[in-house]
Amino acid sequence: MTADQAGPPVEKGVLDLREWDLDDEGAVTLNGDWSFHWNKRMTTADLHNGSMDKAVWSEVPSTWGSNGTARRTSLSLCKILM
Fold it and tell me: Where are the domains of the chain?
C-alpha cells in the first residue's frame, strides 16, 4: 500500500468506505479517531443505549497512554464503525 492509498481516515469513530473501491484502490489503514472506554466492560446493549457516549477519543496510531488515561494495566474497549 502506498501513502496515497491509505484510504479515508476514521473520524470520531466512523470509517466511511462508501466511496472507496477495495478492488481498484486496495486495503485501507485504520488510522484516525478511535473511541476508547477505559476500565469498562461493555455489552451489545451498551452500543445502542448511549453508554458509548462517554468515550475518550484517541488518535490511532499513537503512543499508548499519550492521552493520559492509560495505566500500567487496564481494560479498555476500542471501537470504530465501518
Answer: 3-79
